[in-house]
Write a structure and sequence with these properties.
Elements (H helix, E strand, L loop, with lengths): L8 E2 L3 E5 L5 H9 L17 H14 L2 E8 L5 E11 L4 E9 L8 H16 L4 E7 L3 H10 L2 E11 L5 E10 L3 H13 L13
Parallel strand pairs: 5-6
Antiparallel strand pairs: 1-2, 2-3, 3-4, 4-5, 6-8, 7-8
Helix pairs in contact: 3-5
InterPro entries: Acyl_CoA_acyltransferase, GNAT_dom
Protein name: GNAT family N-acetyltransferase
GO molecular function, one term: acyltransferase activity, transferring groups other than amino-acyl groups
């Protein structure tokens, strides 16, 4: 059993495209934007390792455990990063949104909240997930704050959970949004996206 691939998810600020090796050059440039691979608490690949990372995600897609996307800004057409549905439990169904990174210049642009809006809307509205999960490194305070701003609630901390390439075993902070919380979370995300739209543009709902 597998969840049907949603295809391209289009928003007003960002478009999520099914990941392919055609995105390689754009993702290499996005990784250079801020040299995010140098942050020890993240898992952003270096440009030289980007092709291998794309292939890894596509292999997980073949196994049914991940649906990966490349994120593209609508205003410039530039690829800015990656995100995924991962740890897919198709029977429940339940998914995690994760393995996400965006180039530094996209931070604060509204692309991240709209990416989450697109993914969460599909998970709850189309797939009927009772819950969607988020996980991050205990030391990644920026990511933890961003997840909390989405409206997700912290479920707990998995201590000594995952060995990282930097040479330590991380504590993983687990958050989730459940279906009954989604209408309120959606309103909050729509307002955050609307704040980045040009004056006069209709900030109406997706679809």
């Amino acid at each position: 059993m597998a969840l049907e691939h949603p295809g391209t998810l289009r928003g007003r600020i960002v478009t999520l495209e099914p990941l392919s090796l055609d995105h390689l050059r754009g993702l290499q440039e996005a990784a250079r934007d801020g040299e995010l691979w140098k942050l020890w608490y993240t898992s952003v690949p270096e440009p030289a390792g980007m092709a291998a990372e794309i292939r890894r995600r596509l292999e997980l897609q073949e196994r049914g455990s991940m649906i990966p996307f490349a994120a593209r800004r609508n205003d410039t057409g530039a690829i800015i990063g990656m995100t995924t549905f991962m740890n897919i439990d198709a029977a429940t169904p339940r998914v995690e949104i994760g393995s996400t990174w965006n180039g530094a210049s996209a931070h604060g642009s509204g692309t991240n909240p709209e990416s989450k809006l697109l993914l969460l809307d599909h998970a709850f509205t189309v797939w009927g997930c009772p819950a969607v999960e988020f996980r991050t490194d205990f030391h990644n305070h920026q990511s933890r704050a961003a997840i909390a701003r989405l409206g997700a609630k912290q479920d707990g901390i998995l201590r000594s959970h995952l060995r990282r390439p930097a040479g330590y075993v991380r504590d993983t902070v687990v958050f989730s949004i459940i279906a009954s919380e989604w209408p309120g979370v959606r309103i909050g995300l729509e307002r955050r996206v609307a704040a980045h739209l040009p004056d006069g543009e209709d900030p109406g709902r997706l679809g």
